């Protein structure tokens, strides 16, 4: 064990779990974090097998998360875990995070933060009474060109934002036979995923990206969520009209039944002077367009980019960076946040560019507001939290 590294435990992410492996790769990419313990499966043999494959001490592969936190809290401070990465299905996010905070451990959770908005608000209240840090892996905020787009808007390159269009299209749940995979089955189960599949899984990413880049907040919406594949009880497609707190209008489209689509997340923001466009499948490109002028292509690693974009870039220009690196940027920033906290510095998520409990609450509020609005005939609904 390297005492110079931030020590991480993980709950979830055992054999056959896609996102757990992604989190572990991201955590170790910059050499600042070491995985020291975990509960990788509810089945003890699978948990131990995963831990051994990862080179962990068998004594630190625990049977359940309560035991993990209790036993780790009893270890010397120089050895015990410092934060937990939560990579389970949604219904377990809140109890694990709440237990970790109770034992004084920091939390980095996969999104959405909880099963319900009420749980997210409870978690926010719990955090306010502690010194524990909380981060949320809203992955797409980690891309360098997303940070550059945010900087351009914040410094006035677009002028006043007038319209936002964000689209997230996938095709992996287009047919009934797509439901048999482990990744699909729990997302389509309301007991594990919550009241929404599509909006809870990818729509919340699109909403977060729109707010993060624009610097605005949704304050009203009109939603039309659909269950396209017969036999499902949760949405697999939807469109949401948005109003933002500066008066701008927007459209959010999310679908998991768009045949042929892979992971097509696109953002376009139109201002009074210019517009920007970014697409996750070409993440090194950011388009800036002004009226009656040639479009400008801004590339990762080229030219004079903002500090946040430069910090998030690891390779020379022309060497593509993507999903793993974006994930890693959140882990690196969270590690730096913990290091500052350990030095008795007052830390805020925004100072380290880490999505936190505010984004967690707004994400859950988006999901619940969209589902409620879709079920009613009233056109516009205020965006409410609690």
UniProtKB/TrEMBL annotation:
Keyword Signal: yes
Residue ranges of every copy of the GFO/IDH/MocA-like oxidoreductase domain listed in the record: 147-277
Organism, scientific name: Pseudoalteromonas holothuriae
Protein name: Oxidoreductase
Domain Gfo/Idh/MocA-like oxidoreductase N-terminal: 6-134
Keyword Hydrolase: no
Keywords: Signal
MF (Gene Ontology): nucleotide binding
